[in-house]
Each structure stands twice: as structure tokens, then as C-alpha cells.
Amino acid sequence: MKFLKILGIIFAVISSLMGGAAFRLMEVLHDPNPLPIPKTQQQQNKTQPKVRVQDENNDTELAVSDNSEEESSGTSRSSLSVLIVGLDNVDGGSRTDAIALAIFDAENKALRIASIPRDSRVYIPGRSWDKINHAYVYGGIKLLRETLVNLTGIPIDYFVKVNYQSFPRIIDAIGGIDIYVDKNLHYNDYSGKLFINIKKGQQHMDGKTALGYVRFRHDPLGDIGRVQRQQKFIDIVIKKLKSPMIITKIPALVNEVMDAVDTDLAPLEALKLMQFANSLPPDRIKMFMAPGRSGSYKSISYWILDNNAFSLQLSAKLPPSEEFSLEEKEELKLDIEPSTEDYSEFDSDKISSLRDQIVSIRILNGDGEKGIGRRAAQIFQRIGIEVPYTGNAKHYDYKASSIIYSPDGGEEARQAAMALAELCGITNERLVHSDRSATSLTLILGHDKEELFSRLESINS
Questions:
Q1: What distances in angstroms separate CA 110 from CA 99, 174, 287, 290, 324, one per listed residue?
Q2: What is the pLDDT of residues 275-326, one digit of tens each?
């Protein structure tokens, strides 16, 4: 979003300076179609008259009809998508350090921006399964584009590439950023020449510090934590770009952004997207991260995408921006009220049977909150299940609590795991599996820990 906003300002200035484009600029601003016509659709609609805008270097073709409104509406489309990537130069080459998909939805008057963790395991056409950031290494923006189309089923109309080497100068050009840092961020990479040392608390960041903030990923949350920080940063930059004080900085901003951005958007097409985004109230702009969970395959860690949930988020219609009616508020209230579960089946005999199968468990903290391992151990011990060990999981981004057991334990170990899953209310079979790293039956606490604790305490009451 940050990059598109900046692009809009830049292209608006450039377009207004073009002698031939000044007249067309007004025409585009008053075009009844809120979005530009994608290049793929322009190619299909070869009979439509085109208007050319001449600049100093080349012709820029705009798919805007000079004929009737009926003909123009026949070439419009209700949504348009832009692939946004941040590039990091490593050893003379480039890799995607950030990937996002922005969907401009004219029908629903909304903008959705999905950040996709670079470790997401996806199918790369012609290369089999791999991390999504490898797609750019293998085949540049073209293969990355194909990979995302294959993943989402959504046509990608345009791309925007941002080089992180120019990123600090862009942030400096807008006067830096004021942001609250949730924790100390410290990392030194001498080979990659990346040095990050940002203290916890309210900070005013210059460009160099801001780059370290959006790139930092060396904590238990890894790439997931970085995506969260990037979205927080984007939100603050958007607010600052709307400030009148930025107007005086546009001349410096123009040079920096034009050096940093590579895109197949034409100037007036970018201007139209900017106009559409700026017309939306905050509640019509939705930023989210592609849902999933941490996992591994052949000892390589990945972000395992939940494709069904991701597709729903990409296509979901946002609720009306007007205030809810009383009836709608009552419906929402009913939807968010916690459901009451019936634990009557867990009588003393049932609990005793499950306890005899489980015997003892190890507990690992996969959430990150201090003290939850000890708290869980106390709850299980009150039920009569021994907890000889508590510790931390490899990372703290487990969305849901899960159970692992040693494959060497055979059917007895599997049955113990299933009994523990029944006791904890873990019904997703994918969250209960054998793992070579498990020396014994192990419960990994996730972000749903409070629900699990509430269930166990209710069963044992």
C-alpha cells in the first residue's frame, strides 16, 4: 500500500508535467470506470480505439475509448490486482524479501492487501514445490507472477518492484517515521552487511533504521513477525503521506521513488489506482497475512498455507461502511458470544480411561507467553497426568495447539496421542502426528491456549 500511494503521487506530478498528458489527465480523473483496464484485457479488445499520450521518451498507450459510454463500460472490469515485491540484492543477485498482492475491488469499493510470507511452500511451475521467494530467483517477476496465479486463481494485471537499496532515501525524503517498537531488535550479519540495533519504545526512525525495522526477522516469530511489523509500518506511512507537510517534500520524493521502483504500470494507470485508493475510507482497506501454520518438509522449515482460508480472504466482501442497524448489531452480538460446550460425557470413568492411556506428557511453549508451560503442567497434574518436562518449542507462531509422538512407539503411542487430543479437544487430525524429534508424547501449546485451558479446567471441575 505504501508503495502504491507513493507511486500515485509521483505519477500524478509527472503526468501533469507532460504537455500531451495534461488534457488526458483530466479525462482520466472523470472516467466513469474507477479502475484502469488491465493490459491482458486490452490485448483481447483489439477493436477498441486507443488514445496515445506522448511523453519525451516514448508513447504510453491508454486503453480509454473515445466512443460511447456503452463501449467503455463493456471493457471495464470490477477488480484489478497488482503484485508488489521488495527486492534485496544478495551476492550480486536479487531475491524477494517481501511479497504482497493488492486487489482493487471496484464493485465492493474496497482494497485488500495480502502479505505472503517468503517461506510459504507453493508449487512453482516447472520447478515443483519450493519456497515462494525462490520463484523470483528461478524465473524473475514472470515466474513469480505465474506462481501466484497458480496459487490464488486470480489474474495478476500489474507488478511493482521496489529495490531496498533506495528504500532509506525514500523514508528520509518524507522526514522519517514515528513508530512504537514492541521489543529490542538486534541482529548483525557481517557477510550481508546488515546491522540492526533498535531499542524498544517510541522511536523516530530515519531511512536506514526503518529499513532494519521492516527487514528484521531474527526472533522466534521469524518471517511471520516481520510481516506483522511491515504491515504496522505501512499503516503509519499511509497516514503520514496524507499529511499536508509532505507536499513540500514531493520534489525530493520524486527522484528517490523513481530510482526505487520498477513497474509495468503506465503513469496514468497508476494515477487512476491512486485516485481509487484515496477515495476509500479506512474501513474499506483490509490488510492481512496469508493464513497458515509453521511446518517442515524434509527438515526444511516452511509456512504451510491454508489455501481455502486464503481464497476466502482474497474474495471476501467487506461489510457495508455505513453504521450497522440495531438488528445487524444483535446478529453480530450473537455471532461473537462464546459457545458453551457440554462436558457431561467426561465423567470420572472417562477421565480415568484417558489418563491411563496418556500416563505422562511433555509440554512445549509454542505461543511465547511466559509461564504457560508451568500453568499447563499444573492443570494436567491436577487431572492426574504427569508432566516430567516443560520447555520452549522451536518457534512461537503455533496458531493452534498440536500433539506429536515418537513413531518408534507404535500403535500404543498413537493411541496415547489420540487420547490426549480427545481430552484437549483437538479434532483436526493434521494437528496430531508422529515426529522424529519427539522423544515421548508431547503437547505444543499454541495461540489457542486459553480455550484449551478453559476446557481442561471445566472437565476437571
A1: 20, 27, 11, 18, 18
A2: 787 777 777 888 888 988 888 888 888 889 988 888 888 877 765 544 333 3
* Beta bridge pairs of residue 365: 392, 445
Q: How many CB atoms lie within 10 A of CB 22?
A: 12
d(CA 5, CA 383): 56
Alpha-carbon distances, residue 278 vs 9, 112, 254, 461 (angstroms)? 11, 14, 19, 55
Query: 352: Cβ–Cβ under 8 A, 6 or more apart, which residues?
Result: none
Distances (CA, A) of 311 to 143, 152, 377, 448: 20, 6, 38, 23
Nearest one of 397, 422, 425 to 339, comparing CA atoms: 425
* Domain architecture of the chain: domains with CATH: 77-315 (3.40.630.190), 353-459 (3.30.70.2390)
Q: What is the mean pLDDT of the chain?
A: 75
Q: What are the counts of helices (DSSP H) followed by strands (DSSP E) for the chain?
A: 16, 21
Task: Tell me what pLDDT residue 260 has.
Answer: 66
